[in-house]
Design a protein that fits this description.
two-stranded antiparallel sheet, Fe_traffick_prot_YggX_sf, Fe_traffick_prot_YggX, iron
């Protein structure tokens, strides 16, 4: 049976992550409080941020920026805003 958590992002009971995907205390907080669905949403936003802002994951400042955006998105109800980005029309 899949592990469930009360997802802080989605504000509902949902399937939890299979294992801790991020290191340290923040990783533990994510594992215990964020669902697979919300993590997938973050991964999509993260990819957009990396590509649109040309982030270099070898740069500690860029990693810190991305972590700040992740915490805001997952735990503080903030959306990731990318200047000039317009979603494709459907």
């Amino acid at each position: 049976m899949a592990r469930t958590v009360f997802c802080q992002k989605l504000q509902k009971e949902a399937e939890g992550l299979g294992f801790q995907l991020y290191p340290g205390e923040l990783g533990e907080k994510i594992f215990n409080n964020i669902s697979k669905e919300a993590w997938g949403q973050w991964q999509h936003k993260q990819t957009m941020l990396i590509n649109e802002k040309h982030l270099n994951m070898m740069d500690p400042e860029h990693r810190a920026f991305l972590e700040e955006q992740m915490v805001g998105f997952l735990f503080e109800g903030k959306d990731v805003e990318i200047e000039g980005y317009r979603p494709p029309e459907q």
